Amino acid sequence: MNLAENQRRDRVIAEDAPAIIEVRDLVTHYGEVKVLDGVSFSVRRGEVFTIIGGSGCGKTTLLKHMCGLLRPSSGSIIFQGRDMAAMDEEELAGMQRQIGIAFQSSGLFNSMTVGDNVAMPLREYGNVDPRLIEPIARLKLSLVGLAHAYHYMPSDLSGGMKKRAGLARAIATDPELVYFDEPSAGLDPIMAAGLDNLVLKLNRLLGTTFVIVTHELDSIRLIADRILMLDRGRVIFLGTVEEAERCSVDRVRQFFERRPDEYIEQRAAE
Q1: Which of 201, 211, 215, 220 has the alpha carbon at shortest distance from 11?
Q2: Integer Cα distance of 198 and 24 in angstroms
Q3: How do 226-231 and 234-239 pair as beta strands?
Q4: What is the pLDDT of residues 26-83, one digit of tens each?
């Protein structure tokens, strides 16, 4: 068992820990298609919560709702005691300043240095002494192992470094909650493992709650305190890694055993 595994397994998030965000009976349509169908769950403060499922199951749509980027057809998303779906644009913008988002593609602006990318939220929100912006941005870069890259351009960075820079920007304003979309996408196994370790480090060091959309089994087994699995827009599993690997639901078993669709067809015929 490596250091990161010890970090995850030594940390226990109590079942009665307070929720930082709650999703209640969420329903979403794209035209006539129901993409999310009665999704309900809560994320506990301080945990690493992963959202998994096959392509097209609704993972990214759910994450967009939790970020306030999409309005649901019905249902509610409660963040810090308030329903995001009932907020007006100004209230929603204020809420979004309290969360961090790390995009799958890193989302860095190619025309700005890495340091300016990380500093941008600090400047945009206007509540930081201008003299402190650069030191804070440098600190965040140092936390993700990029202290040397402040004056680099995004084009100077590797794929893994871009992901780290995007994560540094996501934590620039010290949010309690950070969303990370497919952190391991496009990375080799060594870089992906380094990013997993970084998530665990920031979770332990800063107490940051992470909600991560991923399909990488190695990452899920390493970082997840709990897993939510979607299938056709519905929740089919919510629990720990250990519970998922013992689960009797066919779709969950198929995912964790890396079986093709023929497995489901065979099970249905039995």
Answers
A1: 201
A2: 31
A3: antiparallel
A4: 999 998 899 999 999 999 999 999 999 988 889 989 999 999 889 899 999 999 889 9
The answer to whether the CB of 227 falls within 8 A of the CB of 238 is yes
* Residue 43 CB partners (closer than 8 Å, separation 6+): 19, 20, 21, 22, 49, 177, 209, 211
- Tally the domains of the chain: 2
Residue 163 CA to residue 108 CA, distance in Å, equals 9
User: What is the pLDDT confidence band of residue 259, given thresholds at 50, 70 and 90?
Assistant: confident
Q: Which domain holds residue 12?
A: 3-98+176-269
Phi-psi map region of 131: left, alpha, beta (phi>0 left; psi -120 to 50 alpha): alpha
Whether residue 56 sits in one domain with residue 10: yes
Q: Which of 140, 158, 174 is the last residue of a domain?
A: 174
Q: What does the block give as tokens for 52? A: 């998994």
If asked whether residues 90 and 180 sit together in one domain, one would say yes
- Domain boundary among the residues 174, 190, 205 is at 174
Cβ atoms within 10 Å, residue 10: 8
Token duo for residue 53: 């499922």
Taking the alpha carbons of 244, 198, 174, 206 in that order, is the dihedral positive or negative? positive
Tokens of 177: 């909650």
pTM of the complete model = 0.89
